[in-house]
């Protein structure tokens, strides 16, 4: 059991849900937590989190390097990723103000976590 962390505005948000019981839902929640957590934001675990803004805009990483970062985070911090297949795909596109990153994470060949960073 994990606490339900979605909020108003999140896809498939449920006002009455307090916990998540399904393993796939828990794995997706763990992945989302990694994606939206910056490095050193978690006390006692300075390596936790992707810090996506830095990787995409400040440090000049390419798709392959960012994919390696995400895959390592998922492998290390998502125990359920050992049970279910998780694959990541990243594409960078040239934007008008700054570059755009499209991140697709597929869980168990059926469920998709998508993130667009502009």
Could you explain how this protein is built, in words?
- The chain has 118 residues and is an alpha+beta fold.
- It has one domain (2-84).
- The chain has helices spanning 23-35, 52-58, 63-77; strands spanning 2-3, 19-20, 86-93, 100-107, 111-117.
- A 3-stranded antiparallel beta sheet has the order 3-4-5, covered by helices on one side. A two-stranded antiparallel sheet has the order 1-2.
- The longest helix is centred in the middle third of the chain and has 15 residues, at 63-77.
- The radius of gyration is 15 Å and the shape is globular.
- The model has no long low-confidence stretch (mean pLDDT 84).
Main structural class: alpha+beta
Strand order of the largest sheet: 3-4-5
- State the major sheet: 3 strands, antiparallel
Helix content: 25-40%
Mean pLDDT: 84
Provide the number of structural domains.
1
Give the low-pLDDT segments: none
Counted by DSSP, the helix tally is: 3
Name the beta content range.
15-25%
Radius of gyration: 15 Å
User: How many beta-strand segments?
Assistant: 5
Give, in order, the helices and strands. EEHHHEEE
Shape: globular
C-alpha end-to-end distance: 34 Å
List keywords for this structure.
two-stranded antiparallel sheet, 23% strand, 3 helices, 118 residues, three-stranded antiparallel β-sheet, alpha+beta, single chain
Structural topology:
Blueprint: E1 2-3, E2 19-20, H1 23-35, H2 52-58, H3 63-77, E3 86-93, E4 100-107, E5 111-117
Give the gist of this structure.
The protein has helices at residues 23-35, 52-58, 63-77, and strands at 2-3, 19-20, 86-93, 100-107, 111-117. With 118 residues, it is of the alpha+beta class. It has a 3-stranded antiparallel β-sheet, with helices on one face. A two-stranded antiparallel ribbon has the order 1-2.
